[in-house]
Fold each of these.
Amino acid sequence: MKHFLTETDFDQNEIIEVFEHASRFKKNRENRPDSALSGQSWGMLFYKNSTRTRISFEVGIRELGANPLIIDQSSTQIRRGESIEDTARVLSRYLDGLIIRTHGHDIIEEFARHSSIPVVNALTDFLHPCQIYADCMTILEKTGQGLNPFEGLRGKKLAFFGDTSCNMANSWILAGALFGIEVHLAGPADFQPRPEIKEFCQARGLPETWRHTQDPNEASRDADVIYTDVWVSMGCEEQEHDRLLQMEPFRVTAETLAGAKENCLFMHCMPAHPGEEVAQEVLHTPQAILFDQAENRLHMQKSILRKISHFEKDA
Ligand code: CP
């Protein structure tokens, strides 16, 4: 059984194929529906709010010829204490695959352990692998570096600003290690990457291609990409005051971009909060490629689902 819970769940050849096929899906979108998931039913179990992920998966599943079922966790018996094991085993009897957005990464791992259908990570508090693959595809497109992330992203410098302990920072640490990207994390001392991501990389023999700094200028200097995410992630609302205060020096502004390479890209996984993690003016520069990132979620996720379902056919 093949699941996609982390960026490292595909091997190098599989990643190259997934990126190539995502690009093919994008070019040939008029030829839908594709038959990759023809006649299947895919569940989308969401414990947390979403705009891009939920809608891009729903549209993508339909475009692959399958039927998406959106399941709000609060409307299921999980909310009333039914175990993940029983839920996973029951859903496996109805569905061909399950996409999950949840809190702890242990929850999705437990679903995967007890599912006899593929499970796909649509964000946990630890990682956001679908977002990262789509973002890497977007950087390749914008820099004209081909479709292979192992070749096209090697040696690039990405500066991540703000909450450097969040799932997106973790996912960039992982993408950096996989693709040879120098990842510079600029954020407050209290919000540094947690030991879990270091242990995850060490356990897989991945190199450390990142460093943390509290100096925003050092991070942005000569960067190819400046990236940020919300300062108050879902589930952290109680820490809002402290977070806004500590992260203030790490807002991405026009000055931040001016310190980077001339053609530096500005990226944000959205939703954006202008005036908090990013200045309004930055969102309107030609360097800002947020909407291309959001669009590529659709094409990349279709490619991930196609690849996962191929494993099923080959098994
Ligand atoms: N970037 C992202 O995951 O957006 P949503 O929370 O809207 O799904």
Note: Strands lie at 41-46, 67-72, 97-101, 119-121, 157-161, 182-186, 210-213, 225-228, 265-268.
Amino acid sequence: MPLIPDVDRHLQALEFSQKQVDRLVRQHPDYFPIYTVHGKWHHEGELWTDWTGGFLAGMMWQFALRTGSQPWHERAEHYSRLLEHRKFDRNVHDLGFIFLNTYLPWYQATGDRELREVLITAGRTLSLRFQHTGHYLCSFIGPQSLFIDIMMNVPLIFYAAKETGDDALYRIASEHCRTTRDRLVREDGSTAHEGLFDVETGAFIGQSTHQGLRPDSRWARGLAWSLYGFSKVYGLTGEQEFLDVAEQNAEFWVSHLPHDKVPYWDFDADLTAPLPWGPQKDSSAAAIAASGLLDLATQTTVPERAIVYRNTAMVMIDVLLDPEYLAQNTAGWEGILKHGVYHTKKGLGVDESVMWGEYFFVEALTKILSREP
Ligand code: GLY
């Protein structure tokens, strides 16, 4: 049986989210933070890599398009413009995160062809990371490295390929997805964070990790990126092989969640170890997977799976609305969702609000409300 959403509770959470973002932009104009420190956004901490600007501006688009608010629309445009120069950025693999959450909704809302050009340029820039010997888009670490996270960015290349009819772009994006499936997605549907390749021969060396516990462990956010990324790619290509991977990931996800449906930062975390290695949750992984599962529920051709995906997403969002996760009753906390994690080993943004957790939480709530009759 599909679960019935609690519309009032969802609306209240979105209003709280708008309030938190409003306060952030008033306190720190034109600033794109990544994670909080003790619940406060402004910080001098290490970025590791600069990949999250599209999430703050993307929330503004979600607010503007749901409510029709002109002030949010103006803010969304302003913050998106601040990101435009990144369309030429060859240092990161994250251009999908930056442009698909900003210029795509902006273009879809206005039909302004200049915005479409920005998306196409960013897609072409991202495609330059393609390694022709190993058949993958390399991560910001270097040409030898493939990250699972790139599955959420490769849709930008498919988008550019479809808009321009450029078959070479389409091939690059498809080959990247197949290499990711073959090298990072395991038989049980779990994923590795990174794959390492010999850059001369393209030979696969092995699985590795930066943000997960171990090379052979199941980093929760990586699995969420894969599930949602393959689902997005299926949405753009209609290729069954990519839907199959998203469903494999979803199978692992739904059958390995802890009792409260919010994963620990790594499915292999030793829960007897002290924080952050032990029982540290990652609310951001739950928000990403919830948003992805809502889409996957509309894509699968198996009705029983559709119910499981949607219900799991609804329960995860419901749990995130609890004061344990939603910061509404936490005095002085500037983020929306507590108990997110950025980089455990580096000690960055551990047990904090993280900007992508905020974005996907808002996106999932907006999807649920927009799909209600
Ligand atoms: N670097 C992407 C992530 O932290 O998930």
Note: Residues 7-27 form the longest helix (21 residues).
